[in-house]
Amino acid sequence: MTTRVLLTDDDPLVRAGLSLILGGSPDITVVGEAVNGAEAVKIVQAGGVDLVLMDIRMPIMDGIAATAALLDLPDAPKVIVLTTFDADEYVVRALAAGAHGFLLKDTPPADIVAAIGKVVDGEPMLSPTITAQLIRQVTEAAPDERSDEALVLADSLTAREREVAIAVGQGSSNAEIAADLHMSIATVKAHISHIFTKLDVTNRVQVAICMHDAGLL
Fold first, then answer.
1. In whole angstroms, what is the distance from residue 187 CA to residue 114 CA?
2. Which parts of the sequence carry 4-aspartylphosphate (predicted)?
3. Do 149 and 113 share a structural domain?
């Protein structure tokens, strides 16, 4: 099965470029385009979208509000935010809201295709350096009470899940976690799925933030 992608950007040239890039992949089908977040939400609600490439700065409804709205849907798609600047405040807010990763708009075509595949497979979309920057920006502005909630959530994890969650927070890929903790990639994916459920998060950055708030990173 191919990954059904919705392109959301108010710039027609960006949409055209992305459509051309993704159209060359046999594993990806562009199923629609939206010019703002509100239109993206309507299209996704109609069904048939697995992943949304989401611009941040758009009229009517920006990418941050749209991301939050999409992830509240019963059958939420994956969301990758598009940005011009690496780890700017908008990206931080979008990832904290639940986006599954981000791409710079000047990312090479082959890397965009690969990134979509990784997100669909649950792989990280951020380097450890960028993850650390995002954690710092989010937690510096967060109240201290977050740590109490994070400790409760962390206590809900098994010892093995906590090890995996810490590794996720350090920016490790599934393959790296499997090698370091001597388990199969399938087992790592199962643990991460349980961690997402127990911590009530939708992406790996949120796991990292929770582990940081709990004092485990």
1. 22
2. 55
3. no
Helices and strands: H and E segment counts in the chain: 11, 5
- Which of 71, 96, 121 finishes a domain? 121
Choose the weakest-confidence range: 41-50, 139-148, 169-178: 139-148
User: Tens of pLDDT along 86-117?
Assistant: 656 777 777 777 888 888 888 888 888 988 99
In angstroms, the first-to-last Cα distance of the chain is 38
Q: Residue 59 belongs to what domain range?
A: 3-121
Whether 175 has a pLDDT exceeding 90, the answer reads no
Q: Is 4 helix (H, G, I), strand (E, B) or coil?
A: strand
- Do 103 and 112 touch, CB atoms closer than 8 A? yes
> What token pair was written down for 63?
């990418």
What CA–CA distances, in Å, run from 1 to 26, 48, 80? 10, 12, 20
**pTM reported for the whole predicted model:** 0.74
